[in-house]
Write a structure and sequence with these properties.
The chain has helices at 15-25, 37-57, 70-84, 100-109, 129-135, 158-165, 179-182, 187-190, 228-231, 239-275, 303-312, 332-336, 341-345, 358-375; strands at 3-4, 64-67, 91-94, 115-118, 140-144, 171-175, 194-198, 209-213, 280-282, 293-298, 315-316, 347-351. The protein has 377 residues and is α/β, with parallel strands linked by helices. Helix 2 runs parallel beside helix 10 (239-275) and helix 3 (70-84) runs parallel beside helix 4 (100-109). It binds pyridoxal-5'-phosphate.
Length: 377
């Protein structure tokens, strides 16, 4: 039996989602910008989908822009805001534990003379709000802090940060990709300017995401071309994927609070078992942590080797983010929270999702505990 424990990397597409997409890959193939009836079918479903996203997230439809991924939404928010302000304010703030889509966008902007500061995080990954206040300058144009960390599950105090930034001419971007399945929230309450989400972390197809952009927030385009997405994001609308994404979002919304409780129950059982082993350390906090996230460092265990052994049992887990997998460099997140190179490398990330059941959790945790014990001789 396959036991998939890497739900932060991606999730299995839901049957209902796949079925909803199919007609838009086959008979309803019209271009949403065409004026004849076949095009109208596509236009109507795209706009209905946008309305649903807005309703579920707590925004206005015109504040939702479909993108090709969560990575694109992050790139667009950061580069779009930075370049819009390039002649005035060139200071940007982020944290050292962001997703690479944020960190690499920031790094790229240095080429254009932007100055980047990184707000300190504590040993559980929470951003230091006093340090953030100290970092804010006259020419700060953007702060980008993720809602929930994909490696260690830390949930950042987004509302407190938006309060700090209130009434300043600073855009607040939040990478909400992991928060979408893991946290019950509403954009109205969070009061942020830019918010990224992705479909494949919630049972939708890969290669589709969205950026929320608050009305009045000005950002440059990232993708230039035709007039799609109210002339802010060129490219023929990916109708079938938009439909799939929004179907996944509707299912998520319906079942979220129930699933969060169930996933957390399975996670706590799994975590208790792992923490009973000697030389196992939890990375990230106990409270204010994503419900399905486990990240541990293990003394004297090569995690790449452990993962290969687990693969033989068709147990799929990871050693950090999927983007870092295969690289031998220790996780930038674990380094930022102060782990030694050794412990940062010897880590195991297990991310439990709603598709898992208690049977898998019992079996999976037994095999992982046995494998660690046997590796230690
Ligand atoms: C997965 C992920 C992304 C990237 O989303 P894609 O749709 O895979 O490009 C960005 N940020 C976080 C926190 C993620 O977990």
């Amino acid at each position: 039996m396959e036991i998939y424990l890497d739900n932060a990397a991606t999730t299995k597409i839901k049957d209902e989602v796949f079925e909803a997409m199919e007609p838009y890959l086959k008979e309803n193939y019209g271009n949403a910008s065409s004026i004849y009836s076949l095009g109208k079918i596509s236009r109507n479903i795209v706009e209905e989908s946008r309305d649903k996203v807005a309703e579920i997230l707590g925004s206005k439809p015109e504040e939702i822009f479909f993108t090709s991924s969560g990575s694109e939404a992050d790139n667009w928010a950061i580069k779009g805001r930075a370049f819009y302000m390039i002649d005035k304010n060139k200071h940007l703030i982020t944290s050292p534990i962001e997703h690479k889509a944020v960190l690499e966008s920031m790094k790229y902007l240095k080429k254009f003379g932007f100055k980047i500061d990184y707000v300190k995080v504590d040993k559980e990954g929470f951003v230091d709000l006093d340090h953030l206040k100290d970092l804010i300058k006259e020419d700060t144009s953007l702060v980008s802090i993720m809602y929930a960390n994909n490696e260690i599950g830390t949930i950042e105090p987004i509302k407190k940060i938006s309060n700090i930034l209130k009434n300043k001419n600073i855009a607040f971007h939040v990478d909400g990709v992991q928060a979408l399945p893991g946290i019950e929230f509403n954009l109205k309450d969070l009061d942020v300017d830019l918010f990224s989400i992705s479909s494949h972390k919630i049972g939708g197809p890969k290669g589709i995401g969205a950026l929320y952009k608050k009305s009045g927030m000005k950002i440059d385009n990232l993708i230039h071309g035709g007039g799609q997405e109210r002339s802010k994001r060129a490219g023929t609308e990916n109708v079938a994927y938009i439909v799939g994404f929004v179907k996944a979002l509707e299912i998520l919304d319906r079942e979220k609070s129930k699933n969060i409780k169930r996933v957390k129950g399975m996670r706590d059982y799994f975590l208790d078992k792992l923490l009973k082993l000697n030389g196992v350390y939890l990375n990230g906090p106990i409270e204010n942590r994503l419900p399905g996230n486990i990240n541990i460092s293990i003394d004297n265990i090569d995690s790449q080797f452990l993962l290969i052994l687990l693969d033989k049992y068709t147990i799929f887990a990871s050693s950090g983010s999927a983007c870092n997998a295969g690289s031998i460099a220790p996780s930038h997140v674990l380094k930022a929270i102060g782990r030694s190179d050794e412990l940062a490398k010897n880590c195991l990330r297990i991310t439990i999702g709603e598709n898992n059941n208690m049977n898998e959790i019992i079996q999976g945790s037994d095999i992982i505990v046995d494998t660690i014990n046997s590796l230690r001789g």
